[in-house]
Design a protein that fits this description.
516 residues, alpha/beta, Rossmann fold, 2 domains, six-stranded parallel β-sheet, disordered N terminus, Helicase_ATP-bd, ATP-binding
């Protein structure tokens, strides 16, 4: 069997995790115009973990069961060993203590909505639960070719779906279930053949490819128990999502339970999701203990810094931030490698320009600096296979001869696909909506590591901002103002105060609250 590259359809449990799941990403990537060096560099500083404990409070609207450790879940022994091997964690995170007993309880027939910040453990908890469900039912399947999916996970982006697929393949090693993929951009012939030959207990998919395979009867969804929306706030805004979901729901049995995972559940998201959330749906909400009254929650392990800077100076400011967070090498003449950094911008053309500018600086100015950086650009306009290679190179762990990427310039479309622990997130602009901001800064502070996010604000262009964008900025300030270490320019604090006063005045006269 070929090593897993991108969406090969069902993967048979029993094959080694190395041959079926992990990206290696050791190529030189010269075809993507990346200047990758193999010269000796000092080891970068370890990511600050410190006392990064779970600063979350969980709120539910039902009488919950709880589990504290993996041992409390009575998982299949081989599955339990795989989790210990890959995650090295035996204690469950806050949200998982409520999610997993709910998912695994066969007497519960209602849907579940889970809302919480990125990196709080929603996706891992969901995946553990549905894999155990498939393992429990797999003994009833007579032949692999007759397997029909019991669970379907639908993700918002190709990169995020590939990451979940890789996790599922590794965790289900030698447990007797088949994990299938239906991912846009992958080889449709390979996916189709593997479904025909092996079937699948669990299908991990993008919405478009899943719709195609169900339409031509490659995938039979008549016996599905669970459907999972991963990153629902992004998923439900995708093109043609509503039409494709109505097509699927007509073919999914009434017994099927819907699990919805989202990083934000603002008014707009709640309104858009209303057609898909059925009556009686139970809710689990995860809030930061720093600010429990905020309408959404950001990861408190990520320091938020807002910087007033003109747009024309934003690239040099980003390089300055990277340099300030790069430790100076102990040996004279060496060049340090910067911490893993993601630089976000809105448009692909701007992302390409930023990448070229940073490479130009690295070529002509890094001799006077104490660091050098490998920079790459990734956005929706790049072919999916190339995007996967770039992300794999970025996610490589540091080694003295490693060929990896230090700084990744990305657009909002790629935010959910970057899953490696990131030390710095730099926003060259404020995104157009709150959900995009949450996904951007959520790249830092993952896996219980600490991180920092810097957002550049051109206050001289406030007049060109939409009302929704200004409101999103104020919401972010209000949600993070009590987080230790967060900083803001005076102009932003004044804007937040002014908008709060205007909102109170509107409410006091009984009008609908409208911003700008």
């Amino acid at each position: 069997m070929k090593p897993f590259g991108y969406g090969l359809g069902p993967s048979r449990a029993g094959e080694s995790a190395r041959s079926s799941g992990r990206f290696v990403g050791r190529g030189t990537l010269r075809g993507h115009h990346i200047n990758l060096r193999t010269s000796r560099v000092p080891d970068p500083p370890s990511r600050p973990q410190g006392d990064c404990q779970e600063n979350f409070v969980v709120k539910v609207n039902y009488e919950p069961e709880q589990a504290a450790t993996l041992d409390d879940l009575n998982l299949a022994s081989a599955f339990h060993r795989n989790l210990i091997r890959d995650t090295k964690i035996t204690e469950l995170r806050a949200v998982q203590r409520f999610m997993l007993p709910y998912i695994l309880n066969p007497t519960i027939k209602t849907d579940l909505l889970v809302v919480g910040p990125t990196s709080c453990g929603k996706t891992y908890g969901m995946l553990i639960g549905v894999l155990q469900h498939c393992i429990h039912l797999s003994v009833h399947n007579a032949k692999p070719s007759e397997r029909r999916p019991k669970v379907i996970i639908i993700g918002a982006s190709q990169e995020a779906v590939v990451h979940v697929y890789n996790l599922a393949v590794n965790w289900s090693d030698k447990v007797g279930i088949f994990v299938g993929s239906a991912i846009a951009g992958s080889s449709s012939g390979q996916e189709s053949n593997r479904f025909m030959n092996y079937g699948a207990d669990l299908v991990i998919s993008t919405m478009g490819r899943l719709h195609d395979w169900v339409s031509d009867n490659t995938i039979d969804v008549s016996d599905v128990d669970f459907v999972v929306f991963d990153d629902a706030s992004t998923l439900i805004t995708c093109t043609e999502f509503e039409r494709r979901w109505h097509f699927l729901i007509d073919r999914i049995p009434d017994k099927c339970r819907l699990f919805t995972l989202s990083s934000t559940w603002a008014d707009e998201t709640r309104y858009q999701a209303k057609p898909y959330i059925r009556a009686g749906c139970n809710e689990i909400r995860i809030q930061s203990t720093v600010n429990e009254v905020a309408p959404f929650s950001l990861n408190p392990a990520v320091e938020q810094h807002f910087i007033k800077v003109k747009l024309i100076d934003s690239i040099l400011k980003a390089i300055e931030i990277i340099g300030d967070h790069t430790e100076r090498p102990k040996t004279a003449g060496e060049k340090a490698r910067p911490p893993k950094t993601v630089v976000f911008t809105t448009e692909p053309d701007h992302a390409a320009m930023v990448t070229d500018s940073m490479r130009m600086w690295d070529r002509f100015h890094s001799e006077k600096a104490h660091f050098r950086m490998n920079v790459a650009c990734v956005h929706k306009g790049i072919k999916s296979n190339n995007r996967q290679s770039l992300l794999a190179a970025f996610q490589n762990e540091f080694e003295e001869t490693a060929e990896g990427i230090d700084v990744l310039v990305a657009t909002d479309h790629m935010a959910t696909g970057i899953v490696a622990p990131v030390d710095l997130v730099i926003n060259l602009d404020f995104p157009p909506d709150l959900a995009s901001f949450i996904q951007r800064v959520g790249r830092a502070g993952r896996d219980r590591y600490r991180g920092k996010a810097f957002t550049m604000i051109d206050v001289w262009q406030f007049d060109t901002w939409s009302g929704d964008k200004k409101k999103a900025l104020v919401d972010v300030i209000n949600a993070t103002k009590n987080v230790p270490g967060c900083t803001y320019p005076d102009e932003l604090l004044q804007l937040a105060i002014a908008m709060e006063m205007e909102a109170r005045e509107i409410r006091s006269i009984g009008c609908v609250e409208v911003y700008f």
